[in-house]
Amino acid sequence: MSEDTHRLTIEPQDASNQKLVENVHPSDWQNPTPKDRYHLVVLGGGTAGLVSAAGAAGLGARVALVEKHFLGGDCLNFGCVPSKAVIRAARAWHEASHGEEFGAPRSDNDGDFAAVMARMRRLRADISGHDSAQRFSDLGVDVFLGEGKFVASDALEIGGERLEFRRAVIATGGRAFVPPIPGLQEAGFLTNENVFSLTHRPASLVVIGGGPIGCELAQSFARFGTSVTLVDMAPQILPREDPDAAKVVDTSLHRDGVSFVLSAKVIRVEATETSKVVVVEVDGQEKRLEAEEILLSVGRAANVKGLGLEAAGVKFDRKGVSVDATLRTSNDRIFAAGDVASRYQFTHTADAMARIVLRNALFPFGRKRSTDLVIPWCTFTSPEIAHVGLYEHEAQERGQQVDTLTLPLGDNDRALLDGETEGFLRLHLAKGSDRILGATLVAEHAGEMISEITLAITQGIGLGKIASTIHPYPTQSEIFKRAADTWFRTKLTPTKKRWLERYFSFQR
Questions:
Q1: pLDDT in tens, 242-299
Q2: Is 285 within 8 Å of 157 (Cβ atoms)?
Q3: pTM above 0.85, yes or no
Q4: 427, 372 Cβ separation under 8 angstroms
Q5: Distance separating alpha carbons of residues 228 and 231, to the nearest angstrom
Q6: Is residue 179 within 8 Å of residue 167, measured between CB atoms?
Q7: Nearest to residue 120, comparing CAs of 20, 228, 7, 45?
């Protein structure tokens, strides 16, 4: 094991982070003696790697797992887990200061940001046992901590030891992309990899990037009381989402105090004695945005460097490892899963891809294809945007005509009672049928609700069957049944209505 594997830390080095690191990269870990040949060697210990390793070991295969940084990957250490703890705290702060609508006592006191981050670190550490080196060793996986790289088409080397394999999985994930902005490195900046190490709330923050992570954290820090300015080169935030959905979130962020500088090009960053200045160009004019901190959120870069992919005969580019629909690389022995091999960079996608790899890599029958996956996703702003399936323009590009239903959340009784009426459900149906092609849902709990539509698309369940399913009242998920009822009413053509009127005229 190389020396620098003993120096891995996460700031601040309090009891929670020490517990975290001792779980996901123990300082006293001793790598096992390699077996003669492994059925599966997994390079990368994020979600895709852990699911692959645990699944293969559970089936009885000889498995080696190699990770040079922290087991759990971005999701546990720098992504889903810490961000959702911070977002939940920001919602609590927001509710405490906006309780007068419900007759609740209003709190105008400044909260304790240090306590927010301490809670996050404690919960992250508690969760980390599930991804710990010891747990995977107990599952029968040979866990190797250190830098591994391919040295042949069927072998990987780590710390001078050679791991030979029948099959391998590349699951090295990605990292925050850092664009070559003049002065950025000198001034210093935050990404998802260090923003959760903060213990002091910055008084002001410039967020560069209006995608999901940028919007989530911009809103959260604004709710904590930070003066936030969000910069993006696109004319709207969340440019990949339904424009109407993005507009709802835009309005919510504005209301929480986030300022926007859109259609802007970042020219350079300057550092002063007391602050950092982001210089942008808007409509041909330079504008200076001064803040205590800069948060960079402009996309992800695949972790492909230093893996020895050339020696293994694995094709890759800056976007990641090239795979076919079965997730096999250009080397028949090697597969890839997760962020390093997918444009859908979500934890649940990495999990699903790893399950496909297990089937395709270990067994000669029953091939699964990643192109068959129906992948939902959610941006965890307030309100949330959840989406699954096709957008209308994607369906049209495939030559599929669509019928679109849009229902405002304000017509839902529970949303009214909860004071959560911002949002809507939009369903895209194959024209003339109840077959669901795609859905966008904007609601406070959209991520919890979208799975009903994901199940419907995956299993070929149309709106007709959703209409016949009883939904408890009052719940926001009733909006799906209401959408089905609305679709049914479109089937009552004038001709059918005349026949019904004639029928009932005889029922006197």
A1: 999 999 999 999 999 999 999 999 999 999 989 999 999 999 999 999 999 999 999 9
A2: no
A3: yes
A4: no
A5: 10
A6: no
A7: 20
